Amino acid sequence: MLINLHACTVGEEILDAVPNGVVVSEVVIRELSHQTSRNNGEYEFIQGLVSRGKLEPVPLDGKGFEIFQALISGTASIGDGEAATIAIAASQRFVPVIDDGKGRAQAESTIKKAQPAWSLDLFLHPRVQAELAGGKYVDAIHLALREGRMRIDEKRCNAVVNLIGVERAKLCVSLPGYKQLLRGWEQKKC
């Protein structure tokens, strides 16, 4: 989610428009402190959001740490960031925002009462659309897909392509079934 918010260039505006607070695991913040994130501006972006109160860092509590350990050591282990996000959501009753398929499957089996959200859900929130009017939210989705390689659910792929347009969708290799979509778009040209 954070990489997508950074990539879209209006991530802070999106967080301002979302009516509820947004928390992030301290594990995720540490994970994004590596040199690549420092070089591409992601780390500075996240630190800025935290310092301005747009994003609240949350540590793993006792129950959360147990869930985290189980998620990173199981046979279908996932990355530390996804595991920490799921653990905090499960232990503190938050809705996690996860785009990775393996992470979503783990979230669904760990958190029985709430489906994980997609980053796309933030971009399509009615208040975000209202605040980023004039197509600005559409541009943000395109940039998150193209630059952040945001993943979306296959069920909404056609709607997203219709929203951003085929020409821009051709630049978004993270779209589900991208190669097949591209072949279809190229065949329609002939």
Largest sheet: 2 strands, parallel
Distance between the termini: 37 Å
Q: What percentage of residues falls in helices of 4 or more residues?
A: 55-70%
Spell the H/E element sequence. Answer: HHEHHHEHHHHHHHHH
DSSP strand (E) fraction?
Answer: under 5%
C-alpha Rg (nearest Å): 17 Å
What is the number of strand segments?
A: 2
Protein structure class: mainly alpha
Poorly predicted runs:
none
**Strand order, biggest sheet?**
1-2
Silhouette: globular
The residue-averaged pLDDT reads 93
Pfam families: DUF3368
InterPro entries: PIN-like_prokaryotic (IPR021799)
Protein name: PIN domain-containing protein
Description of the molecule:
The termini are far apart. The model has no long low-confidence stretch (mean pLDDT 93). The protein is mainly alpha-helical and 190 residues long. It has helices at 2-7, 11-17, 26-31, 35-40, 42-51, 62-73, 80-92, 101-110, 119-123, 126-131, 136-146, 157-164, 166-169, 178-189, and strands at residues 23-25, 56-58.
List the main descriptive attributes of the protein structure presented here.
mainly alpha; 2 strands; 190 residues; globular
Short description:
This protein has 190 residues and is mainly alpha-helical.
